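Example with several molecule types.
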Amino acid sequence: MSIAGIFEHPLGRLGPDALPFWQMLQHPTEGNIINGCVATGAASMVVIGALVMVVLLTRYRRWGVLWSDWLTSPDHKKIGIMYVAIAFVMLARALIEAVLMRAQQAFGLSGGFLSPDHFAQLFSTHGTIMIFFMAMPFLTGIINYVMPMQIGARDVSFPVLNSISLGLTAAGAGLVMVSLVIGKFSTGGWFGYPPFTEASFSPGVGPDYWIWSLTLASLGSTLTGINFAVTIYKERAPGMTLMRMPLFTWTALCTSILMIFAMPPLTVATAQLALDRYLGFHYFTNALGGNMMNFANLFWLFGHPEVYILILPSFGVFSEVISTFSGKVLYGYRSLVMATMAITVLSFTVWLHHFFTMGQNANMNAAFGIASMLIGVPTGVKIYDWMLTMFRGRVRFTVPMVYSFGFILLFVLGGMSGILLANPSVDYQVHNTVFLVAHFHNMAVPGVLFGMLVAYHFWFPKAFGFRLDERWGMVSALCWIFGFMAAFFPLYVLGVMGLPRRTVAYSEASYVPLEWVAFLGALLILVALGSLLWQLRVSIRHRDENRVAAGDPWNGRSLEWATSAPPPEYNFAVIPSVEGRDAFARAKEEGCAYQSPDTYRDIELPRNSAMGPVTGAIGFALGFGLVWHIWWLVILSFLAAVTTLIVRGFARDTTRVVPADEVRREHLRWIAAVNATTAVSRVDECRPVNDGRARYEAIGVAP
Amino acid sequence: MNREAVRHPGLNLGAAHGRDDEAAERVMFGFWVFLMSDAILFGMVFATYVTSVHATAGGPGPHQLYDITSVFVETLLLLASSFTFGMASLALKYGPGKGRLAGWMIATLALGIGFLALEVHDFTAMFAAGGVPSRSGFLSAFFDLVPLHGLHVAAGCVWLVCLLGQIARYGLDTQAKLGVMRLALFWHFLDIIWIMIFSVVYLAGLA
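Resulting structure tokens for the full complex:
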């Protein structure tokens, strides 16, 4: 390409036909109008959402606060909160898409109302978003917030890198959102199999949006994994040996290890697909020696460990929550650690079960089928450990526990259907049907999503200083659980009846009743999301009644509860020294919680850095330029990226000091406030009298 | 377990460097972990190459394209550069001053640039012989693996220049020291990758 060629088309292939209503105006057929209206409605929601944000920020003069307190903050707690905020926004979008798909299928006997192309975009974005831009940011955010405090650290090892990871993830999420307004997203599903996604079959921008949003997100996740693993290995408080770490931290470690090793195959797969599409390489094409099986292997070499990246932190959350709300030490800590590690290792040995039907010999399939079934063993160990933790405990029926019950029951069911699918001969019968869709949603919704929502309920008071409303939380939890059942149990039956996944329309009348049950289930899940948002609103409005400033609303067991709510930016005035598991519960038991030391020291903290938002902006511009072939933008943002890194290398004076006096004052004030707080019994846990100090209660003694 | 005893593998700065040595621990460990991730990246690309080596689709294959003499010289240059960087690391640890360190680093840079120049020359020759990446699955895989290593070396060279700039600007402060130590790991890592490339791609391809 010549220099002149770069500027010949300053907007690349971006033209008016990229607008969602263009086709509807050009060819106003009935189908085009319906699809155009749906797409335009979705696009306007994005645009209006962005505009409302801008107006509100300007109206209340919050741009400065947003920039200096949030976007440039290297504080792991704020970064964690921002991750979770991204996750909620993306959850809302992908959930609406899910409801739209269920609606289409409910009306699918007569062809429905969506075009096949539009429907394909919906399932592609739904999957991509739920995995990469809902679940991943959610768990990354929760780990970010909780893990450093659980190990008694001041921050993660590389705070600015943490902010960069957030920037890259946000850039990827931004690309997916922009694809709603400008152009189209991929129609190739969340795993984008070539050759369909090659330039010869999908010449549009769709797969490019998919490639670059995933590439940005996976780079962010790789860096996050490195950061978390190093933090856990290097930043633990004195005495916090590996086998004293809270179980959530263990799962965070295993997830990080998986991120470090499982993200590169995805990066290679998307990069090679990009080279095919942009420069005419032949990795996965049909002609000239391309081999799409390489893509399948690379993708699932990432994709299967990814499943455990998603589920392990949830396992950690459930472990913490079930132990806390049963008022008992976690049963079988050692076996839970070993089970987590076993799952981590086994997760790399089963990727082939994602394509049993794609031409391996029977022995190969058998080996991978057996390996897949083996994963059921450590997972089963975990389920028993959680049940035995509750056994003879004083179980409190709070919102997180209700989710946990739903999780245990539903997850076991989903696991059973997974054992079925792990048998290649069964898989041949039901592969590519909605039976599979039912199975993985049965793992992902009660497993990953419930786990994350539990984490949100459990640690929200720690992050914001007030509890979430219990009643609306309960409504939401029940709607999630029963909505899930209604939406996905019918799919098992439909799958066995032969309904292929991703079907836009069908001609078999007997599918209709079950499709409608599933559609109503999806609506119930929408109600669940609505009540979750309403709960947030109610809780914010009544925040003064529900304050838990002392910091320990649930009679917590690990170190994150040993600080105020919200915690100071340096987490701990004095780094705790740890003598056993459940460090904070132990301290309360021995009556030595909330002590003030004789001396305080200066605390060194990283200064704010614009690296995160700048990298994010550059990543977004680079991705957008690549998608639309705007070459000058690509060159410019690439140069900007290199320059930013070089300039950052020359930065010195990147830390600041919080003087010991200030630390002391802050800490003593909190200790005084704690001493002035009445300790409440667990009976009053969800009442306004709970100000965040827990009365010590031995198991088996009446309150 | 005595946590003080656990140090990152490789050349430590040593107690004489005081706080710089302490600060090295988390950064160096983090960089080791990054290299593990990068190793997986190369592993995947190697796997692509190995599975595509016969997918020449009637186009030119290894025998028509590889110039073992040139590649052998490249190998020597890169191995020599690992030696010079090793000397740079020793100069960093034992001093005195920054002159000797800068000297060895500049030598490394020269060798690195020499390697890159020869590699570009190889690629140009391959292009001229019809060995372009869009010709076949085999060539696509080749041009994924070998230039990926080349890009890493180029990035290492840029990094090296930046470190020289930092040393000139700030002297041998903590960050500059840690930068040199990390680049050293990176450089040796790329050497190992190159030995794999030399064996798997060139020697096996011409065997």
